[in-house]
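Lab notebook, bench 4. Continuing the backlog of folding jobs that were queued last week. Each job is logged with the same field layout so the records can be merged later without manual cleanup. Today's entry covers Hypersensitive-induced response protein, a 289-residue chain. Filled in by technician R.K.

JOB TYPE: sequence-to-structure
TARGET: Hypersensitive-induced response protein
LENGTH: 289
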Amino acid sequence: MGNLLCCVQVDQSTVAIKERFGKFDEVLEPGCHFLPWCLGSQISGHLSLRLQQLDVKCETKTKDNVFVNVVASIQYRAIANNASDAFYKLTNTRSQIQAYVFDVIRASVPKLNLDDAFEQKNDIAKAVEDELEKAMSAYGYEIVQTLIVDIEPDEHVKRAMNEINAAARLRVAANEKAEAEKIVQIKRAEGDAESKYLAGLGIARQRQAIVDGLRDSVVGFSVNVPGTTAKDVLDMVLITQYFDTMKEIGASSKSSAVFIPHGPGAVRDVTEQIRDGLLQGSVHQHPNL
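JOB STATUS: finished
OUTPUT FIELD FOLLOWS
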């Protein structure tokens, strides 16, 4: 119906290319236009002004000889004022953009190691965008945004990288565990040393108290019982303690057996040994006696 009335409609965000007898005439904006086909005017085609996106996957190699797949996302659109260039100068816009992306990525990534390629994704995207902007502007296209959305190494490389990271983390964990065990052992040794030191002090004080108590008993008994010597009193005290110890052992309810030599000679030997030890302790405690 529109062709019969010599009218044509151009949709929003679209321009139409008008030709007259096969030669470019003008660019028709969105809306309704008079098109006298009988005078050789016709619509050669339409060009969308909407933002378009092209994802390009490029395989290349890094400086450390790792093959990676780099995925670039290109957002572009035709420039309304240069619609004729965008329509006539390029046969396949997407193929042209893809070629430029391949060229820039394969020139940039081989200069970087794998780790640097991940860190410098923005620099690679900027280089691609600058090259595309310079090349595609001559064809009536504007490059809106360029993104490097993924850098994917070979599956074997990814597995090796994961194993390296796992080994590094295990090594750190092992070091931390060893350090913790070292601290525990040091603290345990310090605790044992402190415990033994305090136990030694307790034993020394206990023995000193026993010596002081026996000495006081001997002195008090000698004063209250005239004619007795210190040796007699000490022998009697030691023998009394000896029999008290025997009594406690015999009254114990435990099943363990203790064999102690017993008899007048044994009692005399025990008495002499204890007395000699106490006298030596007294000499060390009171060297002026």
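OBSERVATION: Residues 155-224 form the longest helix (70 residues).
SIGNED: R.K.
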